């Protein structure tokens, strides 16, 4: 009987405990909640007068900041203009006090004098460049190498000693530049001294056919071009030297070159590669000796391996019938 009464009372006891816990929780939350003004919990309304006034104040402050920044920029621009005008006046006073020895000043009121001054300046650039004479350099790395070109190809040193050093394809700007130079050189051949009765040649004409050219660019002076044209005899050539001083191309030299008594020196550095050297000597004998003969070959050999084979190739080439009358054309430096 007692057990049955306890079982019936147990759910009521659990319900009372749950109600007590909820009451304690509510009292704890009310007691621990921080006190604050009612305005802190109230959400602002967009259309309320207070929010509109705040936005207007912020916009007015930003507008004032931008206005002050614009005024500051205008003051800086005015100061810079004043400094620029002062520097220009100082430069003008210095030029008047120390005139340029070349008198390179463009006077637009006198076009002829301006053209003469410009031409004198361009001529001075030619004198500064390595055109008429060389310049002493501090190291070999300061030397500006030449690049060679023909009507179809450009051979450059930037790629190093690769198997195919020609540029493929040639850039359009470089091709147009070289074509312009060749046309100017042909024009110089057609009219060397202003004589209109001279024969007319083209880059591909049998007489004065364009052979090869070299060029290099000095960054502070300009570009030098040397073009070689075949002459009317086997050993006669025409050499045209042009210079572009970051302006119009100018003719520097037009001369005849006679290569009949000129000895060509070829220096070949070699290490091993005897089979390739044998093929080279065969081509050298056919192209250099049999056709011309005015050539001297020096082989600089590095190392000891295959050196005897290289000597044998040179001795066999030297002992042929066509080299009996050409002593001293071949030598070996080890």
From TrEMBL:
<feature type="coiled-coil region">
    <location>
        <begin position="63"/>
        <end position="97"/>
    </location>
</feature>
<dbReference type="GO" id="GO:0047238">
    <property type="term" value="F:glucuronosyl-N-acetylgalactosaminyl-proteoglycan 4-beta-N-acetylgalactosaminyltransferase activity"/>
</dbReference>
<dbReference type="InterPro" id="IPR051227">
    <property type="entry name" value="CS_glycosyltransferase"/>
</dbReference>
<keyword id="KW-0812">Transmembrane</keyword>
<keyword id="KW-0333">Golgi apparatus</keyword>
<keyword id="KW-1133">Transmembrane helix</keyword>
<dbReference type="Pfam" id="PF05679">
    <property type="entry name" value="CHGN"/>
</dbReference>
<keyword id="KW-0808">Transferase</keyword>
<dbReference type="InterPro" id="IPR008428">
    <property type="entry name" value="Chond_GalNAc"/>
</dbReference>
<keyword id="KW-0175">Coiled coil</keyword>
<comment type="similarity">
    <text>Belongs to the chondroitin N-acetylgalactosaminyltransferase family.</text>
</comment>
<keyword id="KW-0735">Signal-anchor</keyword>
<feature type="transmembrane region" description="Helical">
    <location>
        <begin position="7"/>
        <end position="31"/>
    </location>
</feature>
<keyword id="KW-0472">Membrane</keyword>
<dbReference type="GO" id="GO:0032580">
    <property type="term" value="C:Golgi cisterna membrane"/>
</dbReference>
<protein>
    <recommendedName>
        <fullName>Hexosyltransferase</fullName>
        <ecNumber>2.4.1.-</ecNumber>
    </recommendedName>
</protein>
